[in-house]
Amino acid sequence: MHSGAQLSKSDAFHRWAVGLGVTAVVLAIPATTAAQAAPPPPPSPPHWRFVTSPSPAYGVLLSVTAPAKNAAWAVGLAGRVTTKPFTGYFLTWNGRSWQQHRVPVAGFQPAVVASSSPSDVWMFGATSPTSADQDEALHWNGHHWLRVRMPFVGYLDSALVLGPRDVWIYNYHWNGSTWTKDAVPRGFTWLETVGGRGRNNIWAIGLTGKRQHAAAYRQVYGSWRRASLPRTVGSTDFGVAESPDNVYISVATHADGLSNVVLHWNGSRWRRLPAPPIPGLLGPVGAANDGGLWDSQADLWNGHKWQDVYGPGGVIPTSGNAIVPIPGTRSAWMVGNWCTSAKCRFHVMINGRLP
User: Fold this and answer.
1) Which residues is 323 bridged to in the sheet?
2) What is the maximal distance between C-alpha atoms in the chain?
3) Per DSSP, what are the bridge partners of residue 102?
4) 202-232 pLDDT per residue, tens
5) What are the pLDDT digits (tens) for 294-338?
6) 20 Cβ partners below 8 Å, 6+ apart?
7) Distance of CA 8 to CAs 28, 80, 139, 144, Å?
8) pLDDT per residue over 38-68, tens digit each?
9) Residue 226 needs a FRET pair 20 to 30 A away by CA distance; which of 130, 131, 174, 193 works?
């Protein structure tokens, strides 16, 4: 059973960041010349735009999840860096607008949100009952909030929620009543667990060896098997496993200051993708619903090449803290802290049209 008390629905740090004009030309076509139909216009390139959302003073969103086309959740912290503690808050998307809510536990500071459905949403973070932080999770089951104690205290930046009784935080697994700890392969530093639809589609990504090579393990019928990644020195920062045949891992190589490598599994082999157009760290990544990859520097890998994806005013957004695809669409949500003119008010962006 979940630990802790149920909380009412109504009361339901890590990363801070602060036209083409067309002229119509009429051509005289001789009557004896058959008019040819004009080719269809090329599809509009993808772009980001701001979506109005509540913005508390000195607030920034850290994580976002979209379990359905008309349902999304985003969590964040508000407050000045010099005046801790920060205040936690979260937003919900109902298909029409974003609404702001207080966290249902006083002092709770959410860092990560993940979900498997609109009635299975988890917020992970820390509560400071005294002077020491206490990591815990808040689970929304569609009716009320439940508090779940975490099996450790430490840095949290990702979570995998496959169902109410199937939750992963690093190598800790929640079965609906208790946390169990999977053994870490010898010499392996476990940094993130990613997964999704399909059997044998849970992956542990991290580092191994004295030179800290990027490494990944795949859970096959309950056992972890080492993946044969292209040899790459660096930290496996982020991963996406949209399906058993479509997995991406970003590796921060730091060979020339700030650089990244993206590795792709197509179901039969791994390959190294061409370098993204913008140098530097990719940051968080998210699956594109057509089998591609989004990164928080507004690049899109469409399966064949990288595309720059611009935001309002032709600016490329580069401060995304999290990005997720919107089910049933070709769009994605991205949250972070972007500035327009002299103000920084916008915290939610969407690619494409509103679903």
Assistant:
1) 334
2) 89
3) 89
4) 999 988 887 778 899 999 888 899 999 887 7
5) 887 767 888 888 887 877 776 666 668 889 999 988 888 988 876
6) none
7) 72, 29, 12, 6
8) 665 555 667 888 888 887 878 889 999 999 9
9) 174
Q: For residues 247 and 271, give the distance between their C-alpha atoms in angstroms, rounded to a whole number.
A: 11
Please check whether residue 65 is in contact with residue 159, taking contact to mean a CB–CB distance below 8 angstroms.
Answer: no
Does the pLDDT of residue 174 top 80, yes or no?
yes
Following DSSP, what letter does each residue of 33-87 receive, concatenated? SPPPPPPPPPPPPPBEEE------TTEEEEEEEEEETTEEEEEEEES-TTSPSPE
Strand order in the sheet with 343-351: 48-50, 343-351, 332-340, 320-325
Q: Is 139 exposed, middle or buried (0-12, 13-18, 19+ CB in 10 A)?
A: buried
pLDDT band at 91 (very low <50, low <70, confident <90, very high): very high
CB-CB contact of 309 with 349 (8 Å): no
**Paired tokens of 325:** 């695809």
**C-alpha to C-alpha distance for 272 and 275, rounded to whole angstroms:** 9
Collapsing DSSP states into helix, strand and coil, what is residue 338?
strand
Write the single-letter amino acid at 96.
R
37 or 164, which is more confident: 164
Distance of alpha carbon 178 from alpha carbon 180, whole angstroms? 7
Q: Are 277 and 299 in contact (CB under 8 A)?
A: yes
Best CA proximity match to 336, nearest among 45, 50, 46, 47: 50
Query: Is 298 in contact with 316 (CB distance < 8 Å)?
Result: yes
Q: Coil, helix or strand for 170?
A: coil
Cβ burial 143-174 (10 Å sphere, 16+ → b, else e) = eebbbbebeeeeebbbbbbbebebbbbbbbbb
* Residue 207 one-letter amino acid: L
Q: What is the pTM of this model?
A: 0.82
| Collapsed DSSP state (helix, strand, coil) of residue 243 | strand
Sign of CA dihedral 20, 22, 23, 29: positive
Structure tokens at 101: 């809510």
Decide: helix, strand or coil at residue 9. Answer: helix
